[in-house]
Amino acid sequence: MSNTFTQIYIHTVFAVKGRTCLIGKEWEDELYKYITGIVQNHGHKLLAIGGMPDHLHVFIGMKTNQSLSDLMQAVKGSSSKWINEKRFIKTKFQWQEGYGGFSYAHSQLDSVIGYINTQKEHHRKRSFQEEYIEFLNKFQVDYDAKYIFEEVEELYR
Hints:
By secondary structure, the protein is an alpha+beta fold. It has one domain: Alpha-Beta Plaits (2-Layer Sandwich), CATH 3.30.70. 39% of the residues lie in helices and 18% in strands. It has six helices and four strands, in the order βαββαβαααα. It has helices spanning 28-41, 68-86, 109-117, 119-122, 128-138, 152-155; strands spanning 8-15, 45-52, 55-62, 100-104. It has a four-stranded antiparallel beta sheet, sandwiched between helices. Helix 1 packs antiparallel against helix 2 (68-86). The radius of gyration is 16 Å and the shape is globular. The relative contact order is 0.21.
């Protein structure tokens, strides 16, 4: 075969360090545009982005030119540096280590995009921690609960 053809859709989820609510309503759209630029500059297609003050969901049409871990390192590293340079918050901004990455079929695109676009409504009923554990269980990811979330108290020791 002379060419490479792929169709890979990945829904990523990642949190602000300590799950603190630092992403402000007044600058979240700028952040979404910035992350969209990072994804596109790496040759991928951003399908949806949304979240809450303590976490983000980014849905990507992945190309095979880069690993997901390298892309997430670029997204999280670049965006946290940008947030700090813009001085949107008074303290240092950081993303929590790690992320969730979940694959979907083309037939599921609309439902995943709809889910991400309605994060504000969704989280009136369910916490981020409940949502994330639900993803891990749905996708049958083995995990140890003590390593999923960095406890807020640990940040201040």
